[in-house]
Design goal:
With about 120 residues, this protein is an alpha+beta fold. The chain has three helices and six strands, in the order ααββαββββ.
């Protein structure tokens, strides 16, 4: 896994979230993935996909900045700042958070295994 490959994965993840391409998004997420939201709630792969499918989460814009990708063998850690225009549980909001994403290869396919963000106002 290279920095360039991880950056392409991150761009693909953002695009899948905005376009609600659940097939692409699901392939990117590890079966044991945990997504820790800035509000403190945690989603699994299954609950995250279900929320997008049911309209509980909608992303209108996601902009990443100040990113740094570090490679550790078959794993990559991405850190940065994310600005999101989202709707969650019927409430539209714009948030800015610091985040960490962890990608790991599973049978040669990189997948997101962990995401954690902390609101940064």
């Amino acid at each position: 896994m290279t920095v360039e490959e991880v950056e392409a994965l991150e761009r693909g993840r953002v695009e899948a979230m905005i376009t609600c391409d659940l097939e692409a998004f699901e392939k990117m997420l590890s079966d044991d993935m945990r997504w820790s939201h800035a509000a403190g709630n945690i989603d699994t792969k299954q609950s995250m996909i279900a929320q997008y499918a049911e309209g509980g989460i909608r992303c209108f814009a996601v902009e990443r900045s100040e990113t740094e990708t570090r490679i550790f063998g078959t794993a990559a850690i991405v850190t940065g700042v994310v600005h999101m225009d989202v709707e969650a549980a019927g409430v539209r909001k714009k948030i800015r958070s610091r985040y960490t994403g962890v990608w790991s290869e599973h049978d040669g396919n990189p997948q997101l295994v962990s995401w954690q963000s902390a609101r940064w106002d």
